[in-house]
Amino acid sequence: MATHGDEKQTSARSTLVNFISIFQKVYYHFVIRCFMIEQPKEREIQLLVQYWLRTLKIKLGWINDFDNLVVHYVMSFCYIDYSIFDDNQFMYSGSNDKTIRVWDVDNNKQMQSFNGHSKAVGCVKFSQYHYRIHRRHVICSSSDDKTIRFWDIKNNQQFQIFDKHRDWVNSIVFSPFNGGRYLCSISSKIIRLWDVEMSNSLHVFSEEDIWGWCIDISPLQNNNINNDNNKSNNIGVIGGSGYTICSGLSNNTIQIWDIETTKKLNVLKGHENIVRSVKYGPNEL
């Protein structure tokens, strides 16, 4: 039975995740202004940071010095992910300084820094697959250096690299099925589906001459809910079950792909500018 303390902590964690998601999107707006429109004024950035830190402090009284953690790193991060294991809360950040950093949220300190990418790190994800199947704490990162790399937190080293992309890798996402065994990445005009366990590229989806920015994989289908996803590790099992990939593009559209046949199923139109974020909702909606 959940206690009041458990509910409070769960609410706090949810608030932190929402804060991180919103903050990185707002910050990205400033980055776009830097490169495409105008340099944001220092005062504007200060107000942005102060506003979100104040909001976070009101909702998360259990983090007293979170401002020190964020402000120390805020001017150069590109992406943040969040996970909880061994009763500890951690954040992972990728930066234009080419590093991936691990932060201990409870103790408000940086734990580790991984160096290996030769250019900016655009996306980081905690690998649920490595944790569930192998009990390893692993971060996956993508970079402008055209690679996707896997980092073992405990051993503090890189142990795996995917290097088949020919341009910078904008976004990565693990599959919500099969224990997260499959990884999808988008780079300029190409989407790739990878088998993490076998370290190989399974499928290539071509965006033709359209630049791809973001990607997501559809959740577990209702007709497979009772299956043991960790046992069904053959990608062929997915085919015909309705699993899809969606991508946000520079031509203002969202494209839907069949994950097995690699065929384009649908194109969603309506946005008036580049689509920079896409996310599938739960099947219950």
UniProtKB/TrEMBL annotation:
PROSITE patterns: WD_REPEATS_1, WD_REPEATS_2, WD_REPEATS_REGION
Pfam families attached to this UniProt entry: WD40 (PF00400)
The protein's name in its UniProt record: Uncharacterized protein
PANTHER family assigned to the protein according to its UniProt record, in alphabetical order: F-BOX AND WD REPEAT DOMAIN CONTAINING 7, WD40 REPEAT PROTEIN
Keyword Kinase among UniProt keywords: no
Organism: Reticulomyxa filosa
Mapped WD repeat ranges: 87-113, 114-161, 162-204
Keywords assigned by UniProt, alphabetized: Repeat, WD repeat
